[in-house]
Each structure stands twice: as structure tokens, then as C-alpha cells.
Amino acid sequence: MTFDEALNDALLVEMRRDSSVVVIGEDVELKQAALFKEFGARRVRNTPISEAQIIGLAVGSAAMGLRPVTCMSFSDFLCCCFDEIVNQAAKMSYMLGGQTHLPLVVRCSTGAGIRAAAQHSQSLESVFAQFPGLKVAVPSTPEKAKGLLAQAIRDDNPVIFFEHKLLGRMEGEVPAGEYTLPFGRADVVREGDGVTLVAWGRMVPICLDAAARLSAQGTEAEVIDVMTLTPFDEETVLASVRKTGRCVVAHEAVLHGGFGGEVAARVAEKAFASLKGPVKRVGAPFSPVPFSPPLEDAWIPGADCVVEAIQELL
Fold it and tell me: What's the confidence (pLDDT) of residue 133?
């Protein structure tokens, strides 16, 4: 399946399994035509173009027992419903002493590369990883897209689910039927002993490309796909760093204030004695995403940036 097909398959399987799962969003009757044909307007509900209204509806319906999956066209539009996500969804269960749960999923496309300009191309996963009460998932392959989305739907907490635009047509083997991947468990997608590469989303295949280049030069990189930023699998990362002695964290979000800083801090605090050099971070420049194709391509961190960071460490 492609990445997008795997996501649709996860939705189909979970909606057949659990009648409380509903899909809410702009033009979902068209975008999810197969689901609409099978489940109808009662469970696949079109909404006005109002992100605050979409998430407000999701929060209320989740509190009353449904499991809404909302579809945002771009992660940038999460800024339009910041209050509903951060002050309502993230905090309601805590403030009510666990008397209610908020099992809702906020799906959104993220990242640059499709010439969508500064207001439709940001990577905002680190923003929402800052807030207790939210879980943040960032899949990197079709298999992980299906497994993590199914897990997000079954989770009793709000999950912000980031899907990179340039991964939509990626193809890969995907398990049939019900399939979930646990949150908070990273995947070592390539083993090595020369340096640890930590990444998520589209930066995972980019790091694998960089690792292949380094292997030809005699350095074997271990690549870790964290899959979820919250909860974060700290132990897998620390175990790898204690083995390799070097660490590079790579993400497409701007370097300033990115989640890579959190990973670097934990490694520095808890695996300092194993480090042979500073923890390096790879990220985008601190600027809006350019619209100009050559500028956008230069702005997006790629395998060359990862290789350069590792060579500096070595």
C-alpha cells in the first residue's frame, strides 16, 4: 500500500470494529468517499471551514462517548484551534479527575516540499509535544502509518497525528486486518556502532540515506525512528548512544526550539559519560518556509546536512 492507502485502511478497519469511531472534517465525504459510502453521513460528517468548530465538536463528542477522528488539511491550521486543543482537549480529563476521557485524533498533513508557501508548510510537532495531556505521533512508513493511527483511535487520550505531505505516495508492505503499534516504543530501523541518528517522520528515510552514504565511507550509523514524541522512548535512544558514543538528532522543523533540543538535553543529562563529542542537531533555518522552489529545496534539511553533522563529530 501507499502511505495514504494505509491510513485509509486503518480508518476502515477501526470503523468496522468500533461503531463509536466517527470521521469529522472539511470535505470528508469526498476525501473519504469509500468510508462515506459504507457508513453514511451519520459517521462521516462534513463540517464548515472552521477549525475551531471542528475541534470543539470533536472535544464535546469525545467527552460524550464517541471516538472522533478529525481531518485537518494542514498542520498550520492547528493554530486556529489552539485553545480547543491545548486548554480543552489536553486538560479536561485531568481537571475532571478522570471522570471522562477524550479519545480523539487530530490528523493533519505537515512539512514542506510541495510549494505551498509559509502558511501551509510548517512542522509543528514540537509545539504540541510541550503540553501534558496530548500525545504526538509522527509515522515514517505505510506500515507505521496504519499501526499508529489505529492505536491513536483506540487511545483514550487526544492524539495529534502528523502525516508528512511527501510521504503520501511512499509504498510498503502493510499488515492486513487489525494492526496497531504501541505508543512510546521507538524502532531501531538500522543497526550500527559508529553514531546514533534519531529522527521521526520524513527525516527517517533521509537519515537512512545518510547512513548508507556513511557506510560506504566506513562508518556504520544506527538509525532510530522514535515514532511518537509524547510518549518518548528515552531508553532506546540512551541505550544506542551508550553503544555508539555519538548522537545526531534530525528533524525538518526549524532548529530553534525544535524537539531535537529536548532529545539532546536528555542524552547530555543521562548518557554524558558515554559521549565522545557534543550532541549535534539538524533542522531547518529559523525562517518561514520559502515559496520559491530553489529556496524551499535549500531550506529543507536533507541527507547532506545529516552527513555533514556526523562528519563534524567524527
Answer: 97
